[in-house]
Amino acid sequence: MEQTGTIFEAIGGFDTIDRLVTAFYKRVGKHPKLVPIFPEDLTETARKQRLFLTQFFGGPKLYSEERGNPMMRRRHLPFAITPSRKDAWLECMHAALEEAEIAEPYRTAIFEKLTMTAHHMMNTPE
């Protein structure tokens, strides 16, 4: 497969994003620190994250086409994102990256990008 240099293509595109998001929300739905700020039914949340991560990692701009500018921090302001919730989110994502079998160096690159994003989302002290 011809690579044009995006993480999205390098990890295998939509199928890998789908595996990652499925593995992630399986954990989020059970995490005691995250359950209070996520809906009981994670179907729509996961669908939006698939769109966002596809775009975030260099794939088609599906999120923007459907929802406009991502403005992730603004979209997350209604939720109390504390340092411990940020850590819980990253813990779930780290495990999901392993379960989705994303190879290095992409696993680390993805986790670093998402760690920066998670820090930016914090909006509430403990």
From TrEMBL:
<dbReference type="InterPro" id="IPR019795">
    <property type="entry name" value="Globin_bac-like_CS"/>
</dbReference>
<dbReference type="Pfam" id="PF01152">
    <property type="entry name" value="Bac_globin"/>
</dbReference>
<feature type="binding site" description="distal binding residue">
    <location>
        <position position="119"/>
    </location>
    <ligand>
        <name>heme</name>
    </ligand>
</feature>
<dbReference type="InterPro" id="IPR009050">
    <property type="entry name" value="Globin-like_sf"/>
</dbReference>
<dbReference type="GO" id="GO:0020037">
    <property type="term" value="F:heme binding"/>
</dbReference>
<dbReference type="GO" id="GO:0005344">
    <property type="term" value="F:oxygen carrier activity"/>
</dbReference>
<keyword id="KW-0349">Heme</keyword>
<dbReference type="InterPro" id="IPR012292">
    <property type="entry name" value="Globin/Proto"/>
</dbReference>
<dbReference type="InterPro" id="IPR001486">
    <property type="entry name" value="Hemoglobin_trunc"/>
</dbReference>
<comment type="similarity">
    <text>Belongs to the truncated hemoglobin family. Group II subfamily.</text>
</comment>
<keyword id="KW-0479">Metal-binding</keyword>
<keyword id="KW-0408">Iron</keyword>
<dbReference type="GO" id="GO:0019825">
    <property type="term" value="F:oxygen binding"/>
</dbReference>
<protein>
    <recommendedName>
        <fullName>Globin</fullName>
    </recommendedName>
</protein>
<dbReference type="InterPro" id="IPR044203">
    <property type="entry name" value="GlbO/GLB3-like"/>
</dbReference>
<keyword id="KW-0813">Transport</keyword>
<dbReference type="GO" id="GO:0046872">
    <property type="term" value="F:metal ion binding"/>
</dbReference>
